[in-house]
């Protein structure tokens, strides 16, 4: 994070986000001035094709809007963030919870990382706090 991001800083962030030739084929982005010449040339050099949204059309990036909304509703709106390291830790913990514990209706109430069904004879249900106690995981443990 930086207080005054510019095209040069953003170009460095994209390189750090996709090291070792792991860059995506396409980058969907808006027309923010932060994406200047340095950013555009760096992305082009990495072999990424930029797809720009139409001006003043946030509906063109529904996946980004959905992710940001989920992060806010489930996590960020419920904590006080002290600094960048604290925010990174909260987001890292939330992503672990999101992928391993949070149920998703589109996955038939399973998580992206499938979980074993724990029948009642496996013991009593015990809660485990996650994301600093904001969310919980429930498992059966033998007494």
Fold and architecture overview:
With 143 residues, the protein is an alpha+beta fold. The chain has a domain at 1-57. Helices cover 35% and strands 15% of the residues. It contains 4 helices and 4 strands. It has helices at residues 7-17, 37-45, 62-74, 84-100, and strands at 26-29, 49-52, 124-130, 135-141. The strands form 2 sheets. The chain has a two-stranded parallel sheet with strand order 1-2. Helix 1 packs parallel to helix 2 (37-45). The longest helix has 17 residues, at 84-100. The radius of gyration is 20 Å and the shape is elongated. The termini are far apart.
Order of helices and strands: HEHEHHEE
SSE-based structural type: alpha+beta
Strand count, sense and barrel status of the largest sheet are:
2 strands, parallel
Spans where pLDDT lies below 50 across 5 or more residues = none
Strand content: 15-25%
Task: Supply database-style keywords.
4 helices; elongated; alpha+beta
Layout of strands and helices, then pairs:
Elements lengths: L6 H11 L8 E4 L7 H9 L3 E4 L9 H13 L9 H17 L23 E7 L4 E7 L2
Helix pairs in contact: 1-2
